[in-house]
Amino acid sequence: MSTDQHAVAEHTHDDHTHGENCGHEAVSHDDHVDYLHDGHKHAAHEDHYDEH
Ligand SMILES: [Zn+2]
Ligand SMILES: [Zn+2]
Ligand SMILES: [Zn+2]
Ligand SMILES: [Zn+2]
Question: Does some domain include residue 9?
Answer without folding.
Answer: no
